[in-house]
Amino acid sequence: MLRSCAARLRTLGASRGGARGPGAARRSFASEEVVDKDCALPNPSWSKDLRLLFDQFMKKCEEGSWKRLPSYKRSSTQNFKDFRTHYVDPKLLKEEQMSEAQLFTRSFEDGLGFEYVMFCNDAEKRVVCFFQGGPRLQGVPGFTHGGAIASIIDATVGTCAFRAGGVVMTANLNINYKRPIPLCSVVVIDGQLDRVEGRKFFVSCSVRSVSEETLYSEATSLFIALDPNKKLT
Ligand SMILES: CCCCCCCCCCCCCC(=O)SCCNC(=O)CCNC(=O)[C@H](O)C(C)(C)COP(=O)(O)OP(=O)(O)OC[C@H]1O[C@@H](n2cnc3c(N)ncnc32)[C@H](O)[C@@H]1OP(=O)(O)O
Questions:
Q1: Which helix (H) or strand (E) holds 119?
Q2: What ipTM, to 2 d.p.?
Q3: For atom 37 of ligand 1, which residue has the closest CA?
Q4: How far is the CA of 206 from the centre of ligand 1 (A)?
Q5: Where does the Thioesterase domain start and stop, copy by copy (predicted)?
């Protein structure tokens, strides 16, 4: 699996006209189309497994019960603009740093970090994420770092809570790591909103292999919908 992952990355580099120096990477990053690119679509680094799952669920979207969630390096939706003005103390915001800010799970070059796509089924209160962790997410040799797994779990269960409760933040995330995830393999994260108590959204998820034979991790979480009358800091 690792060899095919490295091979895919080599072709990716070639398809981009070879290696790029940091300047080139930053130049391409700075251009608007890169920042506004929908990252939740296939790119050359996606494995066959990830493309197959994507195609399967795109068919479900045509049937109407599921919806693919676009994903960007930076979110310019009104929700997040309100978030910043409403909840963040302007003294904490250093504009020059904020101009570089982007979603952590979208801050790696194609294929090196988090390759993923999420689909939601609001009727079932579910969000499913197909995740391929790249070579920059290594923990122990050959396996995905536990913090990277926690990040993609947080994003998946967080999106589940967000769809039900709007602007939420993670208050608690408990993960049981049952089996290590081989680096560059594809896993299925199935998030389910379990219950809502006022501003508290309880979401759980499983992380399984594509064949569903291996249960890698299980998690429970609590997200809190932000109180418009409370500052965060
Ligand atoms: C449109 C664009 C789409 C994009 C989609 C992207 C979606 C991404 C989604 C996001 C993905 C990434 C998300 C991230 O990565 S968010 C980043 C990580 N999280 C944080 O930094 C949050 C830090 N914590 C806080 O800011 C506050 O504690 C919050 C805001 C969470 C609550 O402070 P607030 O002052 O508002 O509320 P409260 O303290 O009155 O508590 C309220 C109730 O909750 C109960 N409680 C609180 N904490 C815990 C706990 N640990 N266990 C059990 N219970 C807890 C508490 O007892 C009370 O219960 P009750 O007395 O009412 O019964």
A1: strand 114-121
A2: 0.95
A3: 224
A4: 21
A5: 142-213
